[in-house]
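Run: sequence + FE3-S4 cluster -> complex structure.
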Amino acid sequence: MYVISVDPARCQGHARCVVFAPDVFDIDDEGYSFVQPERGTCAQLSEDVQLAIANCPERAISATDDDSKLE
Ligand code: F3S
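>> structure
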């Protein structure tokens, strides 16, 4: 299970994540990205999310394999 998150300290509001994966990311009132409720975990990373991660100029998006936390 992957956990998708946006680092608020890195996000600068470029909004490319919303362009590539509008079902997962949204922009708050301040112009910064957040992961939409109940969209922050997935069994496999969709191509949309992978594109969002790859195209964020600030490298603010991460997808952590939750299984690695079970060690
Ligand atoms: Fe922020 Fe990167 Fe999206 S800077 S708004 S997470 S493209």
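>> summary
The helical segments are 16-20, 47-55. The beta strands are 2-6, 25-27, 33-35, 41-42, 61-65.
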